[in-house]
Amino acid sequence: MDGEKASREAPTDGLAGLLGIGLEADRDGEASVDERKEARLRAALAETLPSGQALVRGLPGLSGQLPMSDCGSIGQLLLDPETPLPTLQEVKDHGKRLSRAPGSAVDRAAATTIYFAAIASAMLFHDRKITGFAHARLSDHFGTLAEKRWMAPRLARHFAAARDLCCRKAE
Amino acid sequence: MASEYSTAIGGSNEAFLKTQWTVIDAARTMDPARRMGIVARLAGQYWKPVYAYLRHKGMGSEDAKDLTQDFFAGVVMEGELIEKADRSKGRFRNFLLTALNHFATSDYRKKNAQFRRPKGGLFPLEAMRNGALALPAEDASPDEAFTYEWAAQLIGEVLREVEAWCRQAGQQKHWEVFRRTVVEPAFLGTRAPALAELCQELKVADAKTASNMTMTVKRRFRSILREKVRQLVRSEEDVEDEIRDLMQILSRFGAAGQSARRTE
Question: Quick one: which of A11, A34, A135, A140 could link to A170 by a disulfide (CB 3.0–4.6 Å)?
Answer without folding.
Answer: A135
